Amino acid sequence: MTANNILMPRPMMLPIMDGLKATGHLHFLWEKSDPEAFIRDNASTIGAIATGGHIKVDGAYMSQFPNLKIVANFGVGYDTVDAKWASRHGIIVTNTPDVLTEEVADTALGLLIMTMRELPQSERFLRAGNWATKGPYPLTHNTLRGKTVGILALGRIGKAIAHRCEAFGLKVVYHGRNKQNDVKYPYYPTLVGMAKDVDILLSVAPGGDSTYHTINAEVLAALGSKGVLINIGRGSVVDEQALIKALEDKVIFSAGLDVFEDEPRVPTELIAMENVVLLPHVGSASHHTRNLMGQLVVDNILAYLGGKPPLTPVAETPFGKW
Ligand code: 8YV
Question: Which residue is closest in CA terms to ligand 1's atom 10?
């Protein structure tokens, strides 16, 4: 028997809920009067989980469901799902790549320009009535002119960002696990080495154990007192306490952040800083792009229920084995 029930542990966007409700097999866990009892009584009927990164779908969680076959993650990043454990247990994990690439790259460039040219600060200055009373907003210390950006993790989104950076006249270099032979940008084998040479360090790196606190005090010191950090990937990649200290001590010049270690909690120290631009994880957050991402979640689960291969399995997934 195919386990054809779909579990949604937390609310997701309406088109996903509607798209999966149409199967007649969707269960909203948060609506159950006793969620634990529901899991206990129905565990063997659950074949699919739809998740939005709000809970940890680790081995302990997945092992509650003996017939689980697919975890469909909303988001290209799937650091809240233990894809290696899933792979060892024949469970497919899917994510939502490609459809968000250009949107996230647009946001990265927006955040970069906002940070370099102090656009939020100058807007606050105008809104506070200072233009008329104090004169023009001070000239910005930073400019994109003549600058080099070092991209950490040159994947699909990283490349879309690199392409845009080039159009803005920036020199692009990159660091990642491996040098990519089909890429024309100079490669740095070490992050510290790259941080020393660039004006802007822009991280697109995914979360998870292998990237945890990769951008630490040493990297920030290498970036230097004129350096700017932009993070559009995952908050866990940056040691946030080290970043706060580096900004307070002027070890680096400024930062633009779309992602944080403990979202939606943003450290009060960062909120108090004038030289930091903070966005509430809006990289992919347009109706257009989120709808496309949501549709992929639905389509991956429908493929499973229809006995077809998943559309967008993650790298760890034992594709073809199920
Ligand atoms: C989403 C993201 O904001 O795709 C990702 O990995 O970080 C964003 O596009 C997030 O997944 C929504 O939960």
Answer: 75
